[in-house]
Structure formats: structure tokens, C-alpha cells
Amino acid sequence: MTAGNGMSLHTVAWELKNGVYRLAQQTFAAPTYVCMGLPTTVTPSEIVSIGNINAGQEEATLSASNRGREETLQLEVTFSVWSGGGDEVEPIIEARVFELVSQLEQAVHYVRGDGTDPTTLGGAVRQCFLTALTQDSMPTNELAAGREAIAIATFTAKARITQ
After folding, report:
1. Cis peptide before 31 (omega within 30 of 0)
2. For position 3, what pLDDT does the model report?
3. What's the pTM?
4. Helix and strand numbers, DSSP H then E, in the chain
């Protein structure tokens, strides 16, 4: 991709997405299934899906030798918890979906686990925080078949892009 002035553009979108994916793999053990996009061959009861990423850039510096840009990225992570049953499982699966969100939020906030590299995902970005969350629950197919709690967390990151 090139800008209108012929200069190459670079983004840290892949570094952010892959960094959160790898961190989620380290954070969650079975039965939680971590994937990019939707799982295709398995139907686990708990899913953490690293999904859509949006990035935008603005000029940050205008010097002749360094045309830096400020990049803002938003990464959506979908959390899904399913259980058979009816209304009685609703509070259980909702509590679990919020627990999963909290675990990933803590992992992103303290990547190394000791607080020495907070919110940078190992230097891929300058900062990354959970900035939005939507959550809902729904019956699956038939009301008696089970319930699914879904949360979509948006992690917003900032990075300085230099050439």
C-alpha cells in the first residue's frame, strides 16, 4: 500500500493482533479455545476469538528526515461461553465470560507478569488498554438446548510509526 505521495505506509496492526493472540494462548488453558476468527472444526464451550482490527494514522512529525505518524488501532476480541440448560445457567455463563475478559485484560496490562512492561505488548505498541465492552446472552437454537454468553472487548492501542 502506498500513500498519495508515493511513500510506503507501515502499520503495527499485525504485531498487535498476533501479540494479543499469542498472549491469549498463554493465558487460557483448556477448555478455553483461542483462535483468530471463528473456529471451523471444533465447537468448544469457551472461545476467545481475536477478530477485527482497525487502524488509522495521523502525521506526528513533519521534519524532512523523519515523517513520523501516530497510529491508533482498535482490536476486537470476542469471548463466548456456552452451556446446556435454561435460565438457571445464565448467571453462571455470564460470570464466566466476564472472568475471561478480565483475565485477558490483566494479561495485556502486564505482559511480562511482573509489571515491567505494562500495556506495550512487549514493545509492539506504546500502550494498549481495554476501552470498550459489550455483552449479551442468548438462547442457542432452541430455548431448552442451552445458553450462550458473548462479550466483545475492544482493545485500543497507540504506536509511533517512523520511516
Report:
1. yes
2. 40
3. 0.82
4. 2, 5
